[in-house]
Amino acid sequence: MRYEENIYLIIAENIRKERKRLCLSQSRLAERADVSIDTIKSIERGKRAMSLDTYLRIVQALETTPLALMNKEQSEEYIERFFFLVSKHNEREIEFALHMVEQLLKGQDCYLH
């Protein structure tokens, strides 16, 4: 399977997982993203490619990021832990924490190999 075909399936699966995690029906997601329910159904089945505009509407409706829906493996445990850790902090503190995590991840190759 080519990467282009595979990425659509990864995105489709992640959209479905996120929708279910948020306890949204396909109809409710379609409404929030301002797209048709047939569009959501086709996308989740991996039968339809979507425009960037549609993708970004779905991302926003799912309250996630464009890259999060492209990752093959998402660890719900880590995501939930991160949300818990930052839930009691203001935007400035969260930005600082994200910056620090980003710097740590950029430098991890020196220590993990």
Structure characterization notes:
- By secondary structure, this protein is mainly α.
- The model has no long low-confidence stretch (mean pLDDT 83).
- It has helices at residues 3-21, 26-33, 37-44, 52-61, 76-86, 91-107, 109-112.
- Helix 2 (26-33) crosses helix 4 (52-61).
- Helices cover 68% and strands 0% of the residues.
- The protein has seven helices and no strands.
Beta content: under 5%
Q: Oligomeric status of the shown chains?
A: single chain
Number of helices: 7
Segments where pLDDT lies below 50 for 5+ residues?
none
Overall mean pLDDT stands at: 83
Structural class of the helix and strand makeup?
Answer: mainly alpha
The rounded Rg comes to 16 Å
Distance between the termini: 30 Å
Number of strands: 0
Largest sheet features = none
- The helicity comes to 55-70%
Order of helices and strands: HHHHHHH
What overall geometry do the principal axes of the alpha carbons give? globular
Write the layout of secondary structure elements.
Blueprint: H1 3-21, H2 26-33, H3 37-44, H4 52-61, H5 76-86, H6 91-107, H7 109-112
Helix pairs in contact: 2-3, 2-4
Short description:
With 113 residues, this protein is mainly alpha-helical. It has helices at 3-21, 26-33, 37-44, 52-61, 76-86, 91-107, 109-112.
Notable traits:
113 residues; mainly alpha; 68% helix; globular
